Please model this.
Amino acid sequence: MTQVTIQYVGGPTALIEIGGLRLLTDPTFDGPGDYPIGSRVLTKTAGPAVAAEDLGPVDAILLSHDQHPDNLDGAGRAYLAGAPLVLSTSAARDRLGGAVRALADGDHVDLPRPGGGTLRVTAVPAQHGPDGSEHLVGEVTGFVLTGSGLPTVYVSGDNASLDVVRAIAERVGPVDVAVLFAGAASTPLIPGAHLTLTSDLAAEAARILGARHVVPLHFEHWGHFTEGPDTLPAAFERVGLQEALRLPSPGERLTL
Model:
């Protein structure tokens, strides 16, 4: 089976190379600082480990959502202008226009691979908070990547629900690589709730998915994360999946 390479840029941003194609998740390239959103302020504590201009061309962007600056910031929006294709939500398409193509749950796009064949990108659900919070957090999507001779890759986007993970596992079966947005994000928008997976929930999600490899994203570099690189290894060890966890350092390239 063909390998997949993931380069961790920072926050939710990673370059996924699979089947000869290069896909970028949630582009965030701004430096540290305060980022207002409504009546709240999100604080970024570190900039990207790789500059946008150093990434090289990409074939598509997997944008889980556009409404929060920790998933799409100012420099990330500028980056979208040069992208050939942006896959995201219908709300993102309406707000951003341009190369954004909306994918509803279950919709897919087949991207031609160099030398023949395709990589299928399928939209799957994501729930950015507890049950009933959708009207507060807005529309979010995840993605599943599949293709002949290719590993199956799940990109969660900002999802906090194991019920969502179970539904995806039932639909696509065991996955080879789970890219899980973790960090146990918490903001005053929904006091006392986590808006993304905790470390323990990320480990349980990996178990549900039957994932051979797990690459966490979005677990550091923002002040609203309450868990991160110090809690993820122990959580995966508790469920016996420590060998599956590939915790990246900023800028690191993982070949899986």
In short: The chain is about 20% helix and 30% strand. The radius of gyration is 16 Å. The chain has a mean pLDDT of 95.
